[in-house]
């Protein structure tokens, strides 16, 4: 008998799989996870793939948020000196 409940979390090169019943119950959370991680998830029914949830493609030239502010800051003044005097 084939189970159609719960998630099958695979390690390695395989894509994560989720049963359609579990996907239906946790749809928004699954979509957030795919968008956040960038890794697709395969939706199955009776262990047969029926759909694949993939993250949206980034527009050409767009980077992630990491490093998006590089080269935009500047140092003004002495960054090594104490903020307050020694008597404070």
Explain how this protein is built.
The chain has 2 helices and 4 strands. It is elongated. Strand 1 (about 5-10) and strand 2 form a beta hairpin. About 20% of the residues lie in helices and about 20% in strands.
Helix fraction? 10-25%
User: How are strands sequenced across the largest beta sheet?
Assistant: 1-2-3-4
What general outline do the C-alpha atoms trace? elongated
- CATH class designation of the domain at 7-53: Alpha Beta
Q: How is the CATH topology of the domain at 7-53 named? A: YefM-like fold
Characterize the largest beta sheet: strand count, sense, and whether it forms a barrel. 4 strands, mixed
Radius of gyration: 23 Å
Cα end-to-end separation: 75 Å
Order of helices and strands: EEHHEE
Q: Determine the CATH superfamily of the domain at 7-53.
A: YefM-like domain
CATH architecture of the domain at 7-53: 3-Layer(aba) Sandwich
Alpha-beta content class: alpha+beta
